[in-house]
Amino acid sequence: MSDLLSRRLTLLGQPANLSLLGQCLHGIERECLRVDSQGQLALTPHPQALGAALTHPQITTDYSESLLEFITPTETDPAQTLADLERIHRFAVSQLDGEYLWSPSMPCPLPDEATIPIARYGDSHIGKLKYVYRKGLALRYGKTMQCIAGIHYNFSLPEALWQVLQAAEGDSSSARDYQSARYIALIRNFRRYSWLLMYLFGASPALDSSFMRGRPHQLQSLDADTLYLPYATSLRMSDLGYQSEAQAGLTPCYNDLVSYTDSLRQAVGTPYAPYVAMGTKKDGEWLQLNSNILQIENEYYSNIRPKRVTYSGERPIQALMARGVQYVEVRCLDINPFLPLGIDLSEARFLDAFLLFCALQDSPPLGGDECHACTDNFLSVVKEGRLPGLQLQRDGQAIGLQAWADELLEQIASLADLLDRSQDAGYHRQALDAQRAKVADPALTPSAQVLAQLQAGERFRDFALRQSQAHADYFRSQPLSAEQQAAFEAAAAQSLRDQADMEAEEQGDFDSFAAAYQASILALAT
């Protein structure tokens, strides 16, 4: 353990500071496709009983009209976060008529690209902007890639904890700048070590063959309808996912917040020749918001993002530049198809210890060579993480995945113990021990368990539908209370009224609104 980490652990372990660890905040966003009873993509509109996707705070859509997204409130206890998520699932399942929530990250058999429905958000300017943005994604990357689902884990440390560390370290910067710098340092360490999460929690070693749509690939055939790699952990996070020549040259620097926001701001304002050739409109119809490297900053695909809650009408970069980093959003987690929620409490508790380790461990700036090694390690693990003897790169030297994983888990154990002390319980150590078992025996990983099911003779699409149906049965077996059900129904009705009000109050034309939206980021000072 480094001296800095040791000092920080000692400081936070003092009685006056220990309770701060119980004030960390957690939130989860879970995406999932709606499918019909045959396991085909549901082509029905977003169910009105779920409310308006534009204005409902907890139930919305992501890329496709068929791709639901459930958003929890933030809670100090991840058990409560998961309870919130479960209630959302129970309500949604109760409103789906003959449809299911698809259980894994990789999509069901998809119709042709033209048939996949883009999410619609009504006739307000912001609703149209969200739709045109998605049209641009379809134009740039194809619709198939946009139907992949995942889990986003949002995590923050209390401001008071950062202030304790800053005072102890004699840092003279503003509280906001110190906190932002520490979150950016967390992100650098996340880049160094996130391959471990893909080994432990990756759950997409296989996919339906229709996903490739005749594109060249190096996958092997498990059966006529299933493609896989024998040692893969997360094909979702491999280079089968988003292929973007435009973004290939975009490497936001995580060495400070200013360079990160500058690189994204410039990408949103820099034309990209192939997109310029496509144009923004055809026959008066919008094709994409603009012809720049990124239409908006959220188009940049990353495994983790620094975030700040935005004000109404404010853009993410504007919020970060104005008020600094408030939390991080972990975006690389697969949906575990064996779990009704796609994630469980053991995973959440390990993530807390892992992220706390990333926040408190030394985190020197990332140089070019280390940056490349981080990317290479991550891609190696998602494609062959269970390969016996797999070697990764650390400090320019080869090291076995298993040896490095054991070292990391030994260091993270100190954070798990600190969290357990703060809560007078042993849950985090138990979660960590479950991960140690996976390192010792790759057969215990979700990716190996999925593959074992498929290798027993079940197609990916049949396995996924069977799990989807089992999860639906689970949620229906324990319906919401009458009071909870009524609250969800009221929230859905309110969201529909809110959208109608927005549309009724809209002023001006959409073209002017879109131009002002684009100008809002170009006007930001570098």
From TrEMBL:
Pfam families on file: Glu_cys_ligase (PF04262)
Pathway the protein acts in: Sulfur metabolism; glutathione biosynthesis; glutathione from L-cysteine and L-glutamate: step 1/2
Domain Glutamate--cysteine ligase: 10-380
Record's keyword annotation contains Nucleotide-binding: yes
InterPro entries linked to this entry: Gln_synth/guanido_kin_cat_dom, Glu_cys_ligase, Glut_cys_ligase
Keyword Nucleotide-binding part of the UniProt annotation: yes
Entry EC number(s): 6.3.2.2
Catalytic activity: L-cysteine + L-glutamate + ATP = gamma-L-glutamyl-L-cysteine + ADP + phosphate + H(+)
UniProt family annotation: Belongs to the glutamate--cysteine ligase type 1 family. Type 1 subfamily.
NCBIfam families (alphabetical): glu_cys_ligase (TIGR01434)
Protein's name in the database: Glutamate--cysteine ligase
Lineage, highest ranks first: Bacteria, Pseudomonadati, Pseudomonadota, Gammaproteobacteria, Pseudomonadales
Gene name of this polypeptide: gshA
